[in-house]
TrEMBL record:
Signal peptide: 1-22
Domain NfeD integral membrane stretches: 250-375
Protein name (database record): Nodulation protein NfeD
Plastid recorded as keyword: no
InterPro entries: ClpP/crotonase-like_dom_sf, Membrane_assoc_protease, NA-bd_OB-fold, NfeD-like_C, NfeD1b_N, NfeD_membrane
Compartments (UniProt record): Membrane
Gene3D superfamilies with a match to the protein in the record: 2-enoyl-CoA Hydratase, Chain A, domain 1 (3.90.226.10), Nucleic acid-binding proteins (2.40.50.140)
One GO CC term, this protein: plasma membrane
Phylogenetic classification of the source organism: Bacteria, Pseudomonadati, Bacteroidota, Bacteroidia, Bacteroidales
Amino acid sequence: MKKKLGLFCGFVFAMIAQFISADDVSHPLVYKIDIKKEISNTTRLYLSNGLAEANALGADAVLIHMNTYGGQVDAADSMRTAILYSPIPVYVFIDNNAASAGALISIACKKIYMRKGANIGAATVVNQTGAAMPDKYQSYMRSMIRSTAEAHGQDTIIQKNDTIYKWKRDPLIAEAMVDERVAIPNLIDTGKVLTFTAQEAQKWGYCDGIAETPDEVITQYLGYKDYQIKSYTPSWYDDLKGFLMNPIFQSILIIIIIGGIYFEMQTPGLGFPSAAALLAAILYFAPLYLDGLAANWEILIFIIGVLLIAAEIFIIPGFGVAGISGIVLVVGGLIMALLNNTNFNFEEVSGKEFGEATLTVLVGLVAGFILMIWLSNKIGHRGMFRKVALNADLKDAISSPDLSPLIGKEGIAATVLRPSGKVLIDGEFYDGVSDSGFIEKGRRVKVVRFENAQVYVENIIP
């Protein structure tokens, strides 16, 4: 009886041990990230957040499920860098298309798998109309896609007594996807940009296998028969943040910032322009700050610049050091917030990144000044701002002092009038605006009218 009881207990313990050990066996975790839209800051966030979560979960592999016609080169550059330096191997399954920027990202992956009928290539840099950009843009793209292919290294092949080194992904083939001048025997002649089908890509080393689904890639090619899969789920915040970081939208925000500051200075106390400028500044800096690009000191530089411009206009007569310094700080703060620099160290910032940031800001500034000039003609008793202007005129009529006794009096320009500044009349200083162009400091002037607590003067010719 004791013997039977001992055998039974042994059997039970063996079953429990087997159950526990089976529970302890960890299944490989494959983390999947979908890139199925235009390459932009939004998809860059998808990949960045997905790789971070995959690292946190200890994933064995990352699989990008791709279907894209391309998009922004700067976002693609950031994505391919993240893939190349990822501690977890990153694979890609091309489901129909990996064109342009999508091709660059795919080439960065450790292995490329394609669906039948899928395509990869056509990585020429184009503008919004689809026309090829100048060669300096193509040159950078050629170098970037070539170095991405080279990053995968070479295979060493021993043939008899000869040692041959063969690229795992031929950089010249990658370059042919960008430059129509590249010719490769038995593959492509000059005058054409290279695009592969799945079978062609497999033949030339740019596809490591053909599959119909991500599951087929994982089981057949990655070798994980019993695995877990987790997919990255984008949040509404990812889409919002990506939209706010779009260069075109950033330029629009700069237009609103500059326009709001200008119109608030033209009609102090109106409120709406300053509120619009403040909101635009928050929308501009907030996503950059949260993404780690904009630092506290860069935002502070921008704020100091705005305050210096305001001080130059409202406190310090004329336009000099404070105003110029303010403009430099505002522009500098906007540009540096777009750069991935550490304090004042710009060693890791490429000339291309600096140029793109500068272009984004300058486009916004130029467009903002053009818009200000156009809208300035619309503000008054007609046009889109007629109600605002009438309300401002009514407010000024109620609160502004009566300067009618000064009409016809003479004084001197206490500052340079370009056309605004300060004038001295009967020993008192007044805000003055020249009605006769530029007036030097110290010249005699005559008051011809007043408006909005300002006297309008003319130069008295000796």
